[in-house]
Amino acid sequence: MSQFKYLYQDINALLGRNKYRVILLLLNRAFYGLLSYRLDRFTFLLLGSNYKYFRIIISPFFFIMQLISNCDIHYRADIKGGINIHHPSLGIVISGKSQISERLTLTGGNVIGIKSGFSGSSIKIGDNCNLGANSCIIGPVTLGNDIRIGAMACVTQNFPNNNLTLLGVPAKSKI
C-alpha cells in the first residue's frame, strides 16, 4: 500500500502549489511515467519471485506507458514519494539498483545508473536532491541530503555530506 501513498506524494509534487490543476496532470508525461513505475513496483512487491512470469503478460502496457512518458524507471528501484520530473520529454532513466529518498527533482535528460560489473552495489540518494538538465549519476555512489547537481554534471564518487552543490565532469563540490 505504500506505493499508493508515494503516488499521492508524487502527484502533489507534480501539481505544485496549485492543487486545482488536476486536468493538467492528465496531460503531463511525467504523471504517466510515475504511475507506470508505481503500478509496476506495487505488483513486483505483491507477487515477489513470481512477478517475472506476470510481467511477460503486462509488459506491452508498460512499454506503451514508457513510450508516452519517456521515463524508464526500473521496478526494482526503491523510490520514496515526492519525485518531481520537470521535462520528461528529454528522457529519464533510473536503474533498478537505486535507493532514492523523498522529494527528488529531475529536470530532464537525467540518468541514474550503475557501472557494469558492480553486482550487489547500489546508488543511494538522500532527501531533497535536485538533478540539473542532462546530469547523470553513475554508481555505485552515496549522496547525502539536500544535494544539488548542476546541469551536465556527472557524479561518479560519494558525497555523503549534506547541503552540497556538485558541478562539472566528474562532479566536484562547489562551495
From TrEMBL:
SUPFAM superfamilies reported in the protein's UniProt record: Trimeric LpxA-like enzymes
Protein name per Swiss-Prot or TrEMBL: Serine acetyltransferase
A GO molecular function held by the record: transferase activity
TM region(s), chain numbering: 20-39, 51-68
InterPro entries linked to this entry: Hexapep, Trimer_LpxA-like_sf
UniProt keyword terms in alphabetical order: Membrane, Transferase, Transmembrane, Transmembrane helix
Originating organism: Mesonia algae
